[in-house]
Automatic annotation (TrEMBL):
This is LacI family DNA-binding transcriptional regulator. It comes from Arthrobacter cheniae. Keywords: DNA-binding, Transcription, Transcription regulation. PANTHER family: HTH-TYPE TRANSCRIPTIONAL REGULATOR GALS (PTHR30146:SF109), LACI-RELATED TRANSCRIPTIONAL REPRESSOR (PTHR30146). Transmembrane segments: none annotated. It comes from the Bacteria. CDD domains: HTH_LacI (cd01392), PBP1_LacI (cd01574). The keyword Nucleotidyltransferase does not apply. GO terms for molecular function: DNA-binding transcription factor activity; transcription cis-regulatory region binding.
Length: 340
């Protein structure tokens, strides 16, 4: 009978032998410990690649009592903002030597969130980041005690440990830009108001109009999708109505631009449009979209730095300030009653 031997996985000792260093030095490199020269690190990494060595996470957990794993409680990952934040978290976690365990939420009820957190805790995560933009989810999480560090993305005033972008100030920047162009009748196309982001952008728009002593323009309702922006664009009063529209995200602005064009409204000659997020395609809309850029990747990095106690990098410290990007969809207001 033929004896078939299963190939042995390379060990730490094999890596040390090939690199010409001690077992302890390889362990320091694998666990990203200090006191190893860069030249030695390169030798060890080259040996790891050559042998296709894979550290045994279970053994490391038993030896150190640490999993180097962070739990992600996520909802609405189909949307640009939450998915972009998750990518930033993933990149930052990998550089810091951590792995992610992601649990997605099918709804935001107390039982569902409790079950998801239990799953993460059972995987031995050392901390939890909740990317849950719904008001109901954040209200539940505000009452949760996990026994490990936890922070929420976008939660604002619900609990200690929130990481949030300054949505209100960004919305005010949008209004300030339009007012500087001479617009006085500024409408708002809001996102779904069970999202914290949509609420804050609406509040920022209202507050800025009040600061400029302008009456509130009409508020239209969308659901973040381009289709809902298109439907709002079909419903907007373009005869004597607003001369500018602040849209709560870029996808809805895309649909709005299409509807306005079909109705014979020229953007920005007749109506100015400003979005929010600066999605990669915003520069290529027709016309190219003036918008507020959110640095989601830096926001994700800030989450990791906050959770594991690192000193924030300077670029991450600026993540809370969305920046106005002026393109072709905004222009000075025309001095007549009917914009189209």
């Amino acid at each position: 009978m033929t004896d078939v031997t299963t190939p042995r996985n390379p060990s730490l000792t094999d890596v040390a032998s090939l690199a010409g260093v001690s077992h302890q030095t390889v362990s320091r490199v694998v666990n990203r410990r200090p006191n190893v020269s860069e030249a030695t690190r390169r030798k060890v990494r080259a040996a790891i690649l050559e042998l296709d060595y894979r550290p045994n996470a279970a053994a490391r957990w038993l030896a150190t009592g640490r999993t180097h794993s962070i739990g992600i409680l996520a909802g609405e990952l189909a949307q640009y903002g939450p998915s972009s934040v998750l990518m930033g978290i993933q990149d930052a976690a990998r550089r810091a030597g951590y792995f992610l365990t992601v649990v997605t939420l099918k709804d935001y009820s107390v039982p569902t969130i409790d079950e998801a957190l239990s799953d993460l805790l059972n995987h031995g995560v050392e901390g939890v980041i909740a990317i849950t933009p719904h008001v109901s989810a954040l209200e539940v999480l505000a009452t949760v005690q996990t026994g490990i560090p936890m922070l929420t993305v976008g939660g604002g005033h619900h609990r200690v440990g929130d990481i949030a972008l300054d949505q209100e100030s960004a919305a005010a920047d949008a209004v300030d830009h339009l007012v500087a162009l001479g617009h006085e009748r500024i409408a708002h196309l809001a996102g779904p108001l069970d999202w914290v982001d949509a609420q804050r952008r609406l509040e920022g728009w209202r507050s800025a109009l009040k600061d400029h002593q302008l009456a509130e323009g009409p508020v239209y309702q969308g659901d973040w999708s381009a289709r809902s922006g298109y439907e709002a664009g079909r419903a907007i009063d373009v005869s004597g109505g607003p001369t500018a529209i602040f849209v709560s995200n870029d996808q809805m602005a895309l649909g709005l631009l299409k509807a306005l064009k079909e109705r014979g409204c020229r953007v920005p000659a007749d109506i100015s449009v400003i979005g929010f997020d600066d999605v990669p395609e915003a520069e290529y809309y027709e016309p190219s979209l003036t918008t507020l850029r959110q640095e989601f990747h830096d926001l994700g990095r800030l989450c990791i730095e906050e959770l594991i106690g690192l000193e924030p990098a300077s670029s991450a410290a600026d993540a809370s300030s969305p920046r106005l990007v002026v393109r072709s969809s905004t222009a000075p207001a025309r001095g007549r009653d009917a914009p189209c």
